[in-house]
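User: Working on a comparison across species. This one is glycine oxidase from Nonomuraea purpurea. Can you predict its structure so I can line it up against the others?
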Amino acid sequence: MDVIVGGGVVGLCVAWRAARAGLAVTVVDPAPGSGASHAAAGMLAPVSEVAYTEGPLLRLGVASLSRWPAFAAELAAESGHELDLRTDGTLDVAFGADDLAVLDELATYMDKLDLPVERLTGRQCRRLEPMLAPSVRGGLLAPGDAWVDPRRVTAALLAALERLGVPVVRARVRELLRSGGRVAGVRLEDGGRLPADRVVVAAGVSSAELAGVPVRPVKGQIMRLRSPGPLLSRCVRGTVHGTPVYLVPRGDGELVVGATQEELGFDTRVTAGGLYELLRDARELVPGVTELELSDVVAGLRPGTPDNLPLIGPTRTPGLTLATGHFRAGVLLAPLTADLLMAEHIGDDGGPVEGTGPGERAGPMGVGGPGDGAGPGDFRGHEDDRGPGNGAGPQRHEGLRDSGHRAELRELAVLCSPERFREIS
Ligand SMILES: Cc1cc2nc3c(=O)[nH]c(=O)nc-3n(C[C@H](O)[C@H](O)[C@H](O)COP(=O)(O)OP(=O)(O)OC[C@H]3O[C@@H](n4cnc5c(N)ncnc54)[C@H](O)[C@@H]3O)c2cc1C
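Assistant: Here's the predicted structure for glycine oxidase from Nonomuraea purpurea:
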């Protein structure tokens, strides 16, 4: 049996995929869905979030984004929950000439990577989003970006797990049980033990203390506003006073405004200053936000790694697998994370996928990133033509059998292998 420590979006997603494949899994978490996943805005925006130095992350993000429509449709069908997945793109706006120049440079970079973006004038931006400030001078539309409500996703995953009869133990794991050089289970806070063939650590920022991995908390404060009707029809981002701010509309009239990025350890206090800055900057983009009702404020801790890439896959210690360190993209990367772990576990014919087992994939960091040979088209990710109804149902691994798909997973597995850090054993 596998024990999955942590019931955030990542752990629950891995558990659901494993259970559907017929594997015996147990999730352990004192409060599933309460970590960073509860705070997250839910942007699935690898293109508009692109940073020049983060080519490998872009590649993972694009690959995971392509999985989201089928993943959401299957999860909604099995759980009976609506996820509010929206695919209307992200609009990145600029105010001054400097901002415009930055966006233009970014657009050129994206063109080189063959990523779909459209340059827009201020007027075109306002035609798309009439509530934008008149001072918006131009923008960049990433039409392929999407977003989802992460709270609905974790609720749906919990419901789907319940339907499959997967145990979710509401308890805190105190430590990993080690025996004969391997991890053999977990010890709970009350002293109880859960033996396991494999332990998957998916405990967000707590993964560091449990498994000694280089994951640090990066605080994010975020607020939810409520409007009688939708103020925006797509995600809007911008940089105000040198700080990025975004607004994410939900189908039910909620507008999410985020998020601060603070290195303050395990501090989850919501501060007046943090909220003031968010509202001040959001108002520059969309003046009408200050009229809305404030419905929720929360601070979450993103599990950051030294290179901003997640830690997914087996470690050098038999029995210990990681699914953590997803930093600011855990919602986006959850379906891909589950696919990577399933490929490692199940492979083509019941064994691990060749080249993805421990010791077999210590490839160079940055493979596939810009500047290391990845040409246009490499970022398009997995073209997922498995629509709802003709895709992966329970106990099926068709996708993993497809050789192109497996080759892609092998390459992606290298990018996030825990083996890139010597200290992880
Ligand atoms: C403000 C903010 C905005 C964000 N916006 C986005 C976004 O737009 N898009 C995106 O993709 N990502 C976003 N993120 C990042 C995203 O939230 C994280 O990457 C993701 O939630 C990580 O998921 P996780 O399951 O690994 O961790 P978590 O969601 O933190 O879950 C970890 C779980 O482990 C449990 N746990 C901890 N310790 C133990 C233990 N000892 N025993 C048992 N269980 C334990 C916790 O109770 C928790 O439920 C945002 C994050 C923040 C803070």
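For your comparison, note: Confidence is low (pLDDT under 50) at residues 348-399.

User: Helpful, thanks.
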